[in-house]
Amino acid sequence: MNKFMNSVKDFLVSEDGPTAVEYAVMLALIVVVCIGTVRSIGTNANAKFAAANAGLL
Q1: Which of 7, 23, 31, 51 lies in the 20 to 30 Å Cα band around 41?
Q2: Smallest Cα–Cα separation from 48: which of 32, 16, 40, 36?
Q3: What secondary structure does DSSP assign to 2-53, as a single string?
Q4: 37/15 Cα distance (integer angstroms)
Q5: What does each C-alpha distance from 8 to 23, 30, 41 come to in angstroms?
Q6: Which residues of 15-38 are buried (b: 16+ CB within 10 A; e: fewer)?
Q7: Positive or negative, the Cα torsion across 24, 29, 32, 34?
Q8: Phi-psi map region of 14: left, alpha, beta (phi>0 left; psi -120 to 50 alpha)
């Protein structure tokens, strides 16, 4: 148990922990932007297809 506590303490003291958190936050923001963009493009494409379908009828 002591070895585990020492490894946790070393992880918290090292600079790798905050860097990993920063990368995770950046990745989450990128994913949110990508999802929003794909959703917007899909909505616009759906509207164009609906307009084309209405024009054919």
Answers
A1: 23
A2: 40
A3: HHHHHHHHHHHHSSHHHHHHHHHHHHHHHHHHHHHHHHHHHHHHHHHHHHHH
A4: 34
A5: 20, 29, 45
A6: eeeeeeeeeeeeeeeeeeeeeeee
A7: negative
A8: beta
pLDDT digits (tens, 9 = 90+) for 1-53: 788 888 877 777 776 666 778 889 999 999 999 999 999 999 999 999 999 99
Q: How far is CA 41 from CA 6, 10, 15, 44, 46, in A?
A: 50, 46, 40, 5, 8
